[in-house]
Amino acid sequence: MQFIKSNVNIDFIGKRKAAFYLSLAMIVVSIVSLVANKGPRYGIDFSGGSEVKVGFSEPMEAKVLRSTLKEIGVANATIQEEMGGELGAVKGTRYLIRTDQAEEGAKEFFAKIKTDLQNATGSTVEIRAFDMVGPQVGQDLQEQALMAMFFALLFITIYISGRFELKWMLSGVMAGALAGAVYALSIFNVSIPFLIVAALLVALVLFWVLELKYAMGAIVALIHDVTITVGIFSIFDKEFTLPIIAALLTIIGYSLNDTIIVFDRIRENLRKHHRLSLARTINRSINETLSRTLLTSLTTLAVVLALFTLGGGIIHDFAFALIVGVLIGTYSSVFVASPILLSWQGKSKTA
Amino acid sequence: MKVISWRLISIIGILVVSVLYILPTLRPGVWPYKKINLGLDLQGGMHLVLEVEVDKAVESTVDRLYHEMRTRLKQEGIRHGGLERVKTPAEALAVQLSTEDQLEKFNTLLDKEYADLAILDKSESGGQTALVLGLRNEDADHIKRLAVDQALETIRNRIDEFGVSEPDIRRQGDRRILIQLPGIKDPQRAKDLIGRTALLEFKLVDESRDPAKISKGGEPPGTQLLHEVRTDPSTNRTIKTPYLLKKRAALTGAYLTDARVMIDNRYNEPYVSLEFDKKGAKIFAKVTREHKKERLAIVLDNNVYSAPVIQDEIPNGQAQITGNFSMDEARDLAIVLRAGALPAPVKILEERTVGPSLGADSIKAGRLSMMVGGLVVVIFMVIYYNFAGIIADIALAMNILIVAAGLAMFQATLTLPGIAGIILTIGLAVDANVLVFERIREELSRGKPPRAAVEAGYARSALTILDANVTTLIAAVVLFQFGTGPIKGFAVTLSLGVLASLFTALILSRSIFDYLLITRKQTRLSI
């Protein structure tokens, strides 16, 4: 069986303008949604607060639950039926209750919620899980998560410039300088998101000036993927939690996987057919690896879809992020990372 | 062939080791290695991060020095223009000395007995000398460090006595303590036990004034207003009784040697009986002798438990705490008293509790999605690549086996995101094989014979596979560095999966091809 014929020849590079506008549109929409919603919607992992997962012995309406909570003095709680439903759970018996109270404020909340709910609703209540994250811990986790994303990107780009352009020294020195700068700035208490955006911009400019093409292509594709995934999360009003950060890092690894395989072929074909133009070589390489790109995306999508539908509430959003990531990552390795290699053409004819 | 033989040895070796490590999980007791650890999110349990409020430890040290110095100054007959406890700019003592003679005497006392106090500020005006004394920075830091160490030790003792199997209690950062209690049944009770400061104090009651007429903050100097809170079992109403107490504790729980639960014969109610060490018994005897017919309040964490009238001298260092406890409450109280007080209060910064039913549900859901996802991939591979697909499926099975064995071997923890990591590995593991197979197909379509095509296919894709996997590995390692429990579990399974897929794609499936094409001399390749 074969989906893609071996002599396939689609003009991907010719469509790079259209792809550029599509990507730009997606990024703009993502950023607009993020700005409109005042940043990503952080879960309690990052914003601090308490969250209880309760199970009732009988189905319960959210409305009833809300008024009951108000009666027992838990104001401004958000109530949500658990997504993705556990197996065999009756509809309306699993809820998530969240308040922004934490630390001392949450003590009372947790100590009383079970008996209070039980008394008020007459249903047997089970506390399936309770999470409380203090504001300080939330802040710490937020910073750690951003740092993790940043360092993952940094190390990966070093590896790529080293492996593909044999500029280990150059990329190593650059990475060292960037990491040092981030460290130095962090001493002065510059806010972390700002710090990382600044570092990424500096990195992009450096890649451009130093002509680290492959690294540039890879990192632009990664920023593209992460931004759009975060944007889609914001559009769907989904929450940012620790597992989502893990999903984003996995997307980074996965999308890169795709990108590197195309890059590898480009490098190989550049050596084999040096009479072809760079654009034709790139296009040829994308076509040659197309079958593999699609197949892997397909198998990965299959398992991630299984997780999404069957994995249960906690894993639901995590799998959603991966689905988005796999789709965007596949697109970006073909339409974003590779065309960037052409960016230097105007600059020097030898490229 | 030589090449095949070392590959074969490594394959058999890894297979045997993997099966060995996985056996205890499948059939406990076959050989005494540990099972795969399940994370708190899968087996249920409680994760807590506490912060030791170390500044309070410094505060109480300065408090103690203040009380001590007051007494010493009196004993030595050093007159002064006032000794005060100040909080700004630092926790300190402010003393006024009006004559040269006083200053000299004071300095001598300072040199002799208060070597750890430093002069933070000194000012002179009109023969008056004002001194501000406080702890040196390094001494304060030492107290803070010690407070965290002690808190860690005390909490460990309390949990040990409470009886939790395989608790994990460790320091995190400067002043935080991480506690993991798997399978805990009553999280609220465990939290109360851990979080309680358990500072036991015996304080004399000041009966010269009516406590009901004194408002909070308006206490006369040297006294404090505390309450006894009791719930009437018949009406379920709480009754708050105020007491005016001497601020200075006559005796503290520091001298306790034992605390145990006893049952009162008359009311059939549990109480906690206390036993003091020699020094404590001596102090207790002295206090009870000197203050007969006065009331002595038993105060725990600033709550009055009872305030009995001292009938007679108590020479043997025995006391008891009553306060209509339930059996569990009395038992927990005895535990915390035996384990000792925390040197400073602790605050719960983060708590994650998972009930056993949610954990079981998560395992079930994880297992189901793993089977469904895996099956889809396995069938797809066979349809798409025919016989070669079966080879890829064998590699996939081996891959999962290695990841599971790796988890058991490194005693890593399997969490729910970890299961997701394994499932993701299924998707990624076939990727390496897809890469190779596509390459082989390419070579075949150029007219190469099967053996040469396989050779070229592997040779050309090996580096690509390596590059692609190293980057995923980098992301996983960074995740491991930054992540907490569940996320770490994800990073571990993902890394194991990447490493395993390198092995299964480059060595295992290659060997199967070689066996078929070289040893069995097949001339057709079904791919």
Written overview of the protein:
The complex is a heterodimer of chains A (351) and B (527). Chain A folds into two domains: 13-43 and 137-344, Multidrug efflux transporter AcrB transmembrane fold, CATH 1.20.1640; 49-133, 2-Layer Sandwich (Alpha-Beta Plaits). Chain A has helices at 16-36, 44-47, 62-71, 104-121, 135-165, 168-187, 192-210, 213-235, 242-272, 278-310, 313-340, and strands at residues 41-42, 49-56, 78-81, 94-99, 125-133, 239-240. Chain A is α+β, with helices and mostly antiparallel strands and 351 residues long. The longest helix of chain A is centred in the last third of the chain and has 33 residues, at 278-310. In chain B, helix 9 (356-385) packs antiparallel against helix 10, helix 9 runs parallel beside helix 11 (416-445) and helix 11 packs parallel to helix 13 (485-519). Chains A and B meet through helix 4, strand 5, helix 5, helix 9 and helix 10 of A and strand 18, helix 9, helix 11, helix 12 and helix 13 of B. Strand 5 (125-133) of chain A pairs antiparallel with strand 18 (346-354) of chain B, so a sheet runs across the interface.
